[in-house]
Amino acid sequence: MGRHIVHRLLILLPALVGVLFLCFCLLQVVPSDPAMIIAGPDAKPETVAAIRKELGLDRSIVIQFGDYILRVAQGDLGRSIISNKMVIEELANTVGPTLELMVGAMLMGVPIGIAMGTLAAVWRGTFVDRVIMAISVAGVSMPVFFIGLILIQYVGFKWGLLPFTGREGPIWAGGLPNMILPAVTLGAVLIGPIARMTRTAVLEVLGADFVRTARAKGLRERTVIIHHALRNALIPVVTLIGLQAAFLLGGAVVTETMFSWPGVGRLAVGAILSSDFPTAQGAIMILALAFLLINLIVDVIYAWLDPRVQRG
Amino acid sequence: MRYLIGLALALMLTAPAAAQTLTMLRNIDAPHYDPARTSSGATTEVSFLIGDTLVGLDYDLKTVTPLLASSWTVSPDGKLYTFKLRDDVTFCSGKKMTADDVVYSFKRVLDPDIRAPFLWRMGPVKEVRAPDPYTVEYELTAPYGELLLQLTNFQATIVNKDNVEALGKDFGVKGIDGTGPFCFQSWEPRNHIIATRHAAYKWGPPIYQNRGPVKYERLVWKMVPEEAARLAAMASGQVDLTYSMPDQYLPQLSKMPNLQVLRPEADLRLFYLGFKISRDNVSDVRVRRALSMAIDRKQIVDSIYFGNGEPATTFVHPKTPDFAPASESPFNRYDPQAAAALLDEAGWKMGTDGFRYKDGNKLTIQLYGFAGGRSPKVTEATQGFWRKIGVDLRLQMWDGTIVFAKLAQQDYDMWSIAFPYSSAGDALRLYFHSGNIPTPNRMNWKDPETDRLLDIGNTALDPAERFAALAQVQKIVQDQALWVPLVHEGLALVVNKRVKNIRAHHVYTSMVYKLLDATP
């Protein structure tokens, strides 16, 4: 297992450099000019040229990237060219809220998804099954922003139950009410796929020999379902949860914008829109790292659950 | 039961504190809050509330009032301004403000390394000095009649020298020590800024009944990029005020019983279409005039701005300092028949396909604009109006990240933009002086008479002389139809009625200015 993890970690490094290079090239291809943005709409061409030189944007792309990678290797992500803020500090301030949102979304989405999928499998072909599957199809089909708008309109505005503008601090310091709506919005995306996968997996397991044996032993149906069937059915579900968690990062960008959540997603979008290359690179690096790490964790868990993967 | 009593007590204890907090909504955050290093509108209101300028501006946007300077004199040659500072002003840190801080703040804006976007507003400075701790001498190389007006703007905010030097590059990011009615407490980018009452504050401008301190203990700016969330937050009373509200919501909000929509005395922000007059298709003044006459500005204001603006028939708003009513051009009035006749006269004849041609060339115009905000809708409406008189307007809207770079390349016949200004001189000098070709004089308007008059307007000691010169410039540039003025864009301050005694200002688009009279 140890060797497997080390092997995966070693693959992670070139993948990260690749992402950084790709992202660097993409930002260069965009025909925007940060110097122009800093200088403002009425600046004279000579002022813009001076700012470009000061920022080092007049150098070749290869030199700029080489310089960037060397600095990143030393842990220096630089300063934002728009705000002067240290990129590392910006990231430190935004990773927490994004993580908080993702954990909240998973705590909300995963149990509901598993419960719905299990119920649908147990009552396969009944009205309950059809309702649950209809909900999960709706969950898969509805975009994050639509769910968010509905929640803002009804739960936040019409019924006045929960706040929906920004984060009021960590959840242990009175920030919980502000986190509920964004977490539910993001979590709703998880419910559909998890419910569907759980239903399929539980159905498959329910026909297995060990379930028949468990029933034959005279165990209660609830014990058979929860302790025997569900436990075994969860292997593919865990994989799916891991993959979905990575995709949550994409949903987080939209959710963070809708609910004014100060996370990495908004940082990345804001930086890209203002051509703030160092900040955009830093934010994308963190998102890529999170994606790679989540995949690594899924791989490891999968290998742990099914040792054949390691051998493969 | 004990829990219930505890909860009730907790609510009783927290309720007054909540009432003492004023919460403002904004759609965007600023990259930083260093007033010298930005022209960002998002920095404006924060700068005015956590800092002060030497002189203040009245609601009429013309009258300059005392603020940190209790009085001032101007030398007979107009080159030396002597400001007497109040001796009771302190920064939030408790440090006393002296002339050293004022000189430092101004020199900072003038420093080429700072690259202050509003450097030009400071005038032709020779030297700024402090003969004693409460006197500042501002010496110019040439008279600059608008100096006082320009010093009311946020780039001239007085900062604490020690604070700037201690924070270095983090000034305006990790903190800013000002003399304003509120003190900068914390900033969580893209989420909120928290400021607290400056308890020692008592030097507010005389336009307020309350000269300080402010009546709110805390001020919180919340950044909410989502329009629907801003609307819901205002309507549900979760926040107190905003002026980041899309036009289409304003009629609805003004009818809500818990809200009021306030407007400033004048809207000094113009949306216009500019002509690059060196292009063949728009080099003929008759074509430019015809195009201006073909647009029904009222319809644009009613249907796109939802009434939040005024049809613009002049380059600056009639309530702008040094506005010249006599300069108004008849060609900015809607008259499509006359427009068509003028194009005929210019040799652009209607073809069988409904477009105009001259020497076999179709009258096609390429316009560049910003892909966000109102620009796409307004230019699309223009496209419709011009289509009716046989003109093929082709629109190319660019994302905010590249629009200025594209405008700088000047590969267009026209462009659209909106800009705020403080005076007629300010707007005219920036955009029409030949020294500012190619940017921001994107028309490439090179006219010695315009330059001469602008220079007179700039340096005139006598306000009447300044007005006469600027009035002539307004006449020339409007007569030449260098721009198509479309809308004096409105600003609307949406306020919850629980906030009392508040009036809308418009000092460089900051509608709340010092907030001194606002009462919970």
Walk me through the topology.
The complex is a heterodimer of chains A (312) and B (520).
Chain A: H1 2-29, H2 34-39, H3 45-54, H4 61-73, H5 87-122, H6 127-141, H7 144-158, H8 176-206, H9 209-216, H10 221-258, H11 264-273, H12 277-305, H13 308-311
Helix pairs in contact in A: 1-12, 5-6, 5-8, 5-10, 5-12, 6-8, 7-8, 7-10, 8-10, 9-10, 10-11, 10-12, 11-12
Chain B: H1 2-19, E1 21-26, H2 41-50, E2 55-57, E3 64-66, E4 69-74, E5 80-85, H3 99-110, E6 125-132, E7 135-140, H4 147-150, H5 161-167, E8 182-188, E9 192-197, E10 218-223, H6 227-235, E11 241-242, H7 250-254, E12 259-262, E13 269-275, H8 285-293, H9 297-303, E14 309-311, H10 336-345, E15 349-350, E16 356-358, E17 361-362, E18 364-370, H11 375-388, E19 392-398, H12 403-409, E20 414-420, H13 424-432, H14 448-459, H15 463-479, E21 483-489, E22 493-496
Parallel strand pairs in B: 1-10, 1-11, 18-19, 18-20
Antiparallel strand pairs in B: 2-3, 4-5, 5-7, 6-7, 8-9, 9-10, 11-22, 12-22, 13-20, 13-21, 14-21, 15-16, 16-17
Helix pairs in contact in B: 8-10, 13-14, 13-15, 14-15
Describe this structure in words.
The complex is a heterodimer of chains A (312) and B (520). Chain A is mostly helical and 312 residues long. Chain A is built from 13 helices and no strands. In chain A, α6 packs across α8. With 520 residues, chain B is an alpha+beta fold. Chain B folds into two domains: 2-263 and 492-496, D-Maltodextrin-Binding Protein, domain 2 (3-Layer(aba) Sandwich), CATH 3.40.190; 269-489, Dipeptide-binding Protein, domain 3, CATH 3.10.105.10. In chain B, strands 8-9-10-1-11-22-12 form a seven-stranded mixed β-sheet, sandwiched between helices. Chain B has a six-stranded mixed β-sheet with strand order 14-21-13-20-18-19. In chain B, strands 4-5-7-6 form a four-stranded antiparallel β-sheet, with helices on one face. In chain B, α13 (424-432) packs antiparallel against α14, α13 (424-432) crosses α15 (463-479) and α14 packs antiparallel against α15 (463-479). Chain B is globular. Chain B starts with a helix and ends in a 24-residue tail after the last strand. The interface between A and B is large, with 51 and 46 residues.
